[in-house]
Design brief:
With 173 residues, the protein is of the alpha/beta class. Helix content is 26%, strand content 21%. 43% of the residues are buried. It catalyses: L-threonine + hydrogencarbonate + ATP = L-threonylcarbamoyladenylate + diphosphate + H2O. This is Threonylcarbamoyl-AMP synthase.
Length: 173
Amino acid sequence: MLPNLFAYPTEAVYGLGCDPLDESAVLAILKLKQRPVEKGLILVAADMTALAKFADVFNPQWSDRLLQAWSDTQRAVTWVVPKTQVCPVWISGQHNSVAVRVSHHPLVKQLAQTMPDGVMVSTSANPASLEPARSAAEVKHYFGEQLYCVAGELGGLAQPSEIWDAMSLSRLR
C-alpha cells in the first residue's frame, strides 16, 4: 500500500488525496492516474483562509466572487487563481496559477483539516481516460490495494466541480 495517499468521496466522485507538500505522495498519485505533472492538480480545503498559503484567494479583484461561489451549497466550484511562492511545481504544473476549492462535503472538510496546512490534493480517482470512480468498489477496481480508501457517501452532485478562471471569468470545465 502506498503511504500518505488515500481515496475519498467528494461532492460527485471519489478523489485521490494527500498533503500537497508531500512530493513523493503527489508523484505517486500522478503515477496511479497516469497524469503528467505539467497539468497541475486541484487543492481543496474546509475554508478559504487555509488556501491562502498556496493561492492568491484574497485578491480584491476576485475574493468576493470566490466566497460567493463557495457559499452555494448546491454547487462545487473550483477557481484557478495565481499561485503563491509556497505552491510547489508538482501541484501547479506548468502554470503560474493553481486550482483551488472550498468543499461543503463534511468528510472532505474533515480530511483537509487533518493535513498539516488544512489543505489537501483533490483529483478524481481514475486512471487517465477512464471514468472517475463513484464508489469505494470502483476505486478498488482501478487501484486494487495500492492505497487506503475512505468509504463514504458522495455529496449528491452529478458532475465533478466546475472550474473557472478567476482572472478572465471563463469557464474551463
